[in-house]
Amino acid sequence: MKILFVCTGNICRSAMAHHYMQKRVNELNLSDKYIIQSAGISAYTGDRATDYAKEVMKKYDTDLTEHRAVYIEESDIKDADLILCMTLAHKRKILNRYPKLEGKTFTLKEYVGEDEYLDIDDPWGFGKDVYSSCAKEIVNYVDKLIEKITRGE
Is 134 one of the catalytic residues? Predict the structure, then answer.
């Protein structure tokens, strides 16, 4: 199963989700079942994760130093089995560009059963506290995602 996380620049939210999910998949010996990737709607391919994203993810034993952003048009989006966006706006943009991806494109929060506020807000341009809060939210929802997919849902 190929899972693609999507945000705007692929240097904060989707990068954090991607690498945390990859770490958890590896820990659970599921790397033969899941391919984890990320991309950005407006990313510049090759950009590095932000310093704050790298710093706050250390708390979760997640290393973003080797992360490089991928522009959505240069990603494997059409081959993804599950596309998890950080906001409803990202989801709408993907479905406008790729209408055939309807049914496998969701916000991360929507996919795991959240029904209130479905966006994970962008920490870009804010301080470490905002990044830390964002990382905590992403880790929480990625953990719920892992529970859901390992139950076979």
Answer: no
Question: Candidates 3.40.50.11890, 3.40.50.720, 3.40.50.2300, 1.20.120.140; correct CATH number of 2-150?
Answer: 3.40.50.2300
Q: How far is CA 98 from the centre of its chain?
A: 18
Q: Is 7 one of the annotated active-site residues of the chain? A: yes
pTM metric for this prediction: 0.97
> What mean pLDDT do residues 97-108 have?
97
The pLDDT score that the predictor gives to residue 153 is 63
For 57-71, write each residue's pLDDT tens digit.
Answer: 999 999 999 999 999
Identify whether 97 is a catalytic site residue: no
Q: Where are the domains of the chain?
A: 2-150
Identify the active-site residue in 63, 121, 122, 143: 122
